[in-house]
Amino acid sequence: MRNDEAETLARWIRDLGLPPGAVCLNIGSSTRMFREEQQPHIAQRLIRPLEAEGMRFVHCDMKSAEGVDEVGDLLDPAFRERLREYRASLLLCSNLLEHLAEPAPFARACADLAEDGGFGIFSVPSSYPYHPDPIDTMLRLNPEELAAMLPDWTVVRSAEIEAGSYWRDLGETGARWSRLFRQAARVAVPLYRPGQWRANASRLLWLFRSYRVSLVLLRKPTRRSPQKPRDSRATVRP
To answer: How many beta carbons lie within 10 A of that of residue 144, not counting itself?
Structure first.
């Protein structure tokens, strides 16, 4: 998740006006270390401010680690049933679909988790370097394509935002030129850590090209309770 994305998502969620105690299922949350140390803006700009306002985050991932509240495979019906017990008003699936071999079934599985009338926020890169975790299928969607994964849900908000560049990332390290030279040297020698060569080379393609992220906020339809059939034997008073 990018800094700009975290700020946008926090604003969108706040604008929903969900009541204190509302549950957000954070799908593909990764670990506490990831959210607070590797990408600290996730905690600082998104999770902690909303928790201070009363939202409850439930962090869900396939790996068991500190900071993961629910561990399991979302394609497993038993795991989905367990998550439905939270009666979540909101689910968050950020920059996960591009790392899945079958993103469409996963998105449909996510749709099963929110309460009727609840909300779902999904994001994927629309312009971003190759970044395996452990794979990157290079799924790159615009907001309309992303929303189409859940065609029965209503689009509340959508956007495609600029989210920096590799040049900006290098500047934030405080050692822009030395890191850039090291990166270029690695790309020039493909036999050095060949498994990382594609990712290293891909970053240089976005040296001055903007990263872009597609975001959609969707609302789950409310199912109507089936009407009881009228009893044709009822007595009609004159």
So the answer is: 12
pLDDT tens digits, 127-147: 999 999 889 999 999 999 999
What lies within 8 Å, CB to CB, of 162 at 6+ separation is 4, 210, 211, 212
Domain range annotation of the chain: 3-164+212-219, 166-205
At residue 234, the pLDDT reads 42
Q: CB–CB of 100/134 below 8 Å?
A: no
Which residues touch 65 (CB under 8 Å, ≥6 apart)?
Answer: 31, 32, 33
Mean pLDDT of 177-188: 86
Closest CA to 43 of 83, 9, 79, 84: 9
Q: Which residues contact 217 (CB under 8 A, 6 or more apart)?
A: 12, 119, 120, 121, 155, 156, 157, 158
Q: What is the band of 225 on the pLDDT scale with cuts at 50, 70, 90?
A: low
Helix (H, G, I), strand (E, B), or coil: what is residue 198?
Answer: helix
Q: What DSSP character marks residue 100?
A: -
Token pair for 22: 């509302």
Class of domain 3-164+212-219: alpha beta
> If we measure between CA atoms, which residue out of 9, 67, 72, 58 comes closest to residue 37?
67
Say whether 182 sits in a helix, a strand or coil: helix
